[in-house]
Amino acid sequence: MIRVTTSDGPGAAFASPVDLSGPGIRLREWTDEDLPAMVELFDEPQVDRWTPLRSPFTLEAARAYLAKGREGRAAGLRIHLAITGDDGGPRGEVLLFRASAEDPDAELGYVIGARHRRQGLATRAVRLITGYAYDALATSRVLLRIAPGNEASAAVARAAGFRLTDDEPVVRDRGDDTVTLLTWCHRRDPV
Question: What is the dihedral of CA 13, 19, 25, 30, to 10 degrees?
């Protein structure tokens, strides 16, 4: 059973604390106490390779990242959630964002720390946050943008019910370079 804890209705755009849970997984908001865990999870070659998070990812970088996430949340555009297990300790992150408050689509990103991979955490987190995007934000579809060659993320997308689209690739700036991303789409099953 999946449990969602918020106090606002559909379309609320992250107005209250978000706490989502499902079998063996909990998605909760990051706290200042999580900063050392963020460094451990994000300062890693595969994170640097496939995400906008650059290495070295220091405690200072973690503070700046958390502050930027909180600013985006306050603007109603994004939410960063720690992926945790039964003990509450962070194992990764899933984020949900929109280009604007009026955007009917939502986009996801996720990271799983190196020692927590191959446990199904990313797939469960993506499924959980996708359901939240439909229920709480009344989004029409949920997107993932994945670099060609990132087979692990493509496998997560497929397992979570996303399909590769034939949309034009998206080019995003990563600070010191750019990355080309393919679009994967999830649409809510008709009721």
Answer: 90
- The pLDDT, as a whole number, for residue 179 is 86
Write out the H or E segment, with its range, that includes residue 183.
strand 178-187
Question: Is the pTM above the cut of 0.90?
Answer: no
Residue with tokens 């690739």: 169
* Strand partners for 26: 21, 84
79 bridge partner residues: 96
Q: Which residue has the higher pLDDT, 155 or 179?
A: 155
| Tokens at 53, concatenated | 């998070």
Looking at the DSSP bridge assignments, the partners of residue 144 are 108, 184
List the chain domain ranges: 3-140
Query: Residues 159, 119: contact at Cβ < 8 Å?
Result: no
Residue 93 tokens, joined: 């992150």
The position carrying tokens 């603007």 is 75
Kindly report the CATH class assigned to 3-140: alpha beta
Q: Which amino acid would we find at residue 5?
A: T
